[in-house]
């Protein structure tokens, strides 16, 4: 049973996703408990899987008993186990949150919503586990297609954003596939383990350089790295309140995990072409994204759009951290990626609650949110983590990134972290200024906040504190067992 | 320059792939009609599939089914099945993408009564 955990983690949400439309025809009210049950089971198994991996070490899962060169193989190591656990727990919280907002914001399309969320969740687990570059492509596309449909699920102006997301996302997928074609033509293999043996020796070959460039460009669109981020703010802003926390906390993060796998498991940490390290340029790109994303967030008036740009800025920090190429920065980057997933979920929960309960879409409407103290408290906590103030997880992530940057002697990166932190502080100051001084609306909200919204916001807030308190063991696990070979 | 053209002419498949890819990209970027954007995307995706098929082509090779009594196996006799399997999967992904994109376009048309990007943008205001 333990041996089959990776397959079960994929199959449980996937089989429920496939059967939901059939159940939903007759019994719409069953969709939510079924989806919640599936993701709860997945989260429990993901926790078990993490314990198993930490106890027995990384393992490879061969589908149908066919071993690697012929069959399809999944790699179940510490990095994958940690990311899948984060993903499934955040999906569970997003589903709890969706219960409070779904009927109103989805326009009655409850069955497609739960089906697509489960489908995307299973595909994302597949992306994280897949150990060959072509399976990564297939799972990425399943996840992306479910994502396009999720953005547009309630109709309205989100449809146009979903279409733009689809055009850019499919362009990214095509570039990724082209890169995979180049790598296959040059090396004759698709498995990451085999590629890892062959690519480092052939790095000077134009086919490998071209293939890696196309793969990076394709994934950069999915990660929303700065010049390729155009789809993200619109998609997250116009997506239904129930959808955006889920998308914001998963899609870009998983694309980043794929790039980390290719960068460090295929190319190798210290690879260089004619004495120029391969990853030289990427930390500058990440630094630019981190600063420019925060700067753009500062100029926004819509709350969700501001948070979306904040997410772009944090993905830039993660890209920069992992590209610094030393263990401290790598562990800090991955830890920050987990934090970012939690913070993005928390931010979009809060923005969703603001829209759903108080009708507040822009900064000017924020005055009405002053009275519920728990909401303001949660917002302050998330803001502390976004900026990076000690008891929260965000601080320890940034701390390790800065330590890694100093270790690498890269003061440009240190400056970028500090500058993006200041800008983040800037847009939260702007937000709180509106919150505390904005005009209060005449009428108080007519209905009480549903329990599901409170529970989900409380659990992500607790997770932010917990990540801060437990940052030391998590970073130690990442440093001891999730590092790529040779780093 | 002449050498470069000569090198291109030796690889007509790659030249065709580049032309298809760029024309698809050009259509996708420049046209304002949503259906034309989808067509551009489709051409672009097809060009990648064409590339996968092109580099796996092998003259004088047959389908990868082992001929009787072939021992040792002569690798030159068979085509490599893997790129073709990749192609099939990529086509399935492409068709699914096309389906979702057409569904979105038709939903946009029903909602805003136009397929033109600028026109839809105006009605969004």
Task: Summarize this entry quickly.
Chain A has a domain at 279-441 and 448-487. Chain A has helices at residues 5-26, 31-56, 78-105, 110-129, 133-151, 158-187, 192-198, 206-223, 231-238, 244-267, 280-298, 303-323, 327-358, 373-387, 393-407, 411-437, 451-469, 471-481, and strands spanning 59-62, 73-76, 272-273, 276-277. With 487 residues, chain A is an all-alpha fold.
Produce the secondary structure layout.
The complex is a heterodimer of chains A (about 475) and B (about 120).
Chain A: H1 5-26, H2 31-56, E1 59-62, E2 73-76, H3 78-105, H4 110-129, H5 133-151, H6 158-187, H7 192-198, H8 206-223, H9 231-238, H10 244-267, E3 272-273, E4 276-277, H11 280-298, H12 303-323, H13 327-358, H14 373-387, H15 393-407, H16 411-437, H17 451-469, H18 471-481
Antiparallel strand pairs in A: 1-2, 3-4
Helix pairs in contact in A: 1-2, 1-4, 2-3, 2-4, 3-4, 3-10, 3-13, 3-17, 4-5, 4-10, 5-6, 5-10, 6-8, 6-9, 7-10, 8-10, 9-10, 9-12, 10-12, 10-13, 11-12, 11-16, 12-13, 12-16, 13-14, 13-15, 13-17, 13-18, 14-17, 15-16, 15-17
Chain B: H1 2-10, H2 12-30, H3 34-56, H4 81-112, H5 117-124
Structure keywords:
A: 487 residues; two-stranded antiparallel sheet; 74% helix; globular; B: 125 residues; mainly alpha; Helix Hairpins; 73% helix; elongated
């Amino acid at each position: 049973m333990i041996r089959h955990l990776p397959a079960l983690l994929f199959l449980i949400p996937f089989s429920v996703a496939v059967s939901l439309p059939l159940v939903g025809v007759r019994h719409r009210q069953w969709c939510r408990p079924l989806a919640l049950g599936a993701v709860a089971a997945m989260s429990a198994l993901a926790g078990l899987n993490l314990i198993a991996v930490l106890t027995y070490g990384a393992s490879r899962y061969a589908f149908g008993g066919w071993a690697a060169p012929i069959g399809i193989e999944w790699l179940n190591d510490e990095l994958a186990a940690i990311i899948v656990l984060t993903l499934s727990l955040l999906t569970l919280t997003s589903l709890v949150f969706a219960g409070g907002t779904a009927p109103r914001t989805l326009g009655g399309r409850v069955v497609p919503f739960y089906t697509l969320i489960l489908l995307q969740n299973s595909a994302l687990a597949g992306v994280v586990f897949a150990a060959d570059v072509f399976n990564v492509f297939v799972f990425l596309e399943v996840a992306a297609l479910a994502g396009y449909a999720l953005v547009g699920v309630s109709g309205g102006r989100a449809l146009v954003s979903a279409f733009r997301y689809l055009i850019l996302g499919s362009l990214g997928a095509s570039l990724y596939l082209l890169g995979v074609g180049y790598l296959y033509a040059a090396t004759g293999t698709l498995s990451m383990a085999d590629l890892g043996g062959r690519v480092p020796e052939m790095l000077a070959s134009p086919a490998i350089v071209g293939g890696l460039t196309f793969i990076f460009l394709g994934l950069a669109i999915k990660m929303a790295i700065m010049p390729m981020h155009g789809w993200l703010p619109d998609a997250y802003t116009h997506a239904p309140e129930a959808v955006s926390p889920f998308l914001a906390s998963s899609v870009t993060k998983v694309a980043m995990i794929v790039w980390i796998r290719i960068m460090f498991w295929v190319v190798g940490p210290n690879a260089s072409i004619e004495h120029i390290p391969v990853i030289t340029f990427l930390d500058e790109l990440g630094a630019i994204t981190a600063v420019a994303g925060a700067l753009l967030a500062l100029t926004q008036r819509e709350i969700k759009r501001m948070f979306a740009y904040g997410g772009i800025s944090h993905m830039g920090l993660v890209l920069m951290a992992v590209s610094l190429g030393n263990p401290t920065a790598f562990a800090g980057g991955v830890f920050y990626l987990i934090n970012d997933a939690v913070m993005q979920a928390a931010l979009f929960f809060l923005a969703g609650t603001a829209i759903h309960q108080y009708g507040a879409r822009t900064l000017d409407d924020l005055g009405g949110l002053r009275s519920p103290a728990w909401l303001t408290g949660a917002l302050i906590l998330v803001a502390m983590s976004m900026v990076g103030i000690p008891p929260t997880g965000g601080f320890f992530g940034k701390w390790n990134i800065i330590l890694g940057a100093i270790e690498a002697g890269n003061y440009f990166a240190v400056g970028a972290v500090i500058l993006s932190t200041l800008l983040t502080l800037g847009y939260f100051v702007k937000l709180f200024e509106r919150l505390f001084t904005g005009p209060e609306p005449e009428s108080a909200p007519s209905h009480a906040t549903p329990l599901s919204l409170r529970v989900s916001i409380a659990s992500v807030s607790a997770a932010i504190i917990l990540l801060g308190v437990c940052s030391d063991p998590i970073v130690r696990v990442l440093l001891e067992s999730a590092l790529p070979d040779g780093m | 320059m002449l050498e470069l053209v000569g090198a291109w002419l030796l690889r007509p498949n790659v030249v065709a792939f580049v032309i298809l890819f760029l024309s698809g990209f050009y259509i996708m970027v420049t046209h304002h009609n949503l259906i034309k954007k989808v067509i551009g995307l489709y051409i672009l995706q097809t060009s990648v599939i064409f590339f996968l098929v092109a580099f796996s082509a092998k003259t004088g090779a047959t389908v990868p089914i082992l001929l009787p009594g072939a021992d040792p196996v002569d690798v030159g006799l068979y085509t490599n099945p893997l790129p073709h399997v990749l192609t099939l999967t990529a086509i399935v992904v492409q068709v699914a993408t096309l389906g979702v994109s057409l569904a979105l376009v038709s939903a946009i048309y029903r909602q805003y009564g136009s397929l033109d990007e600028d026109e839809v943008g105006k009605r969004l205001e």
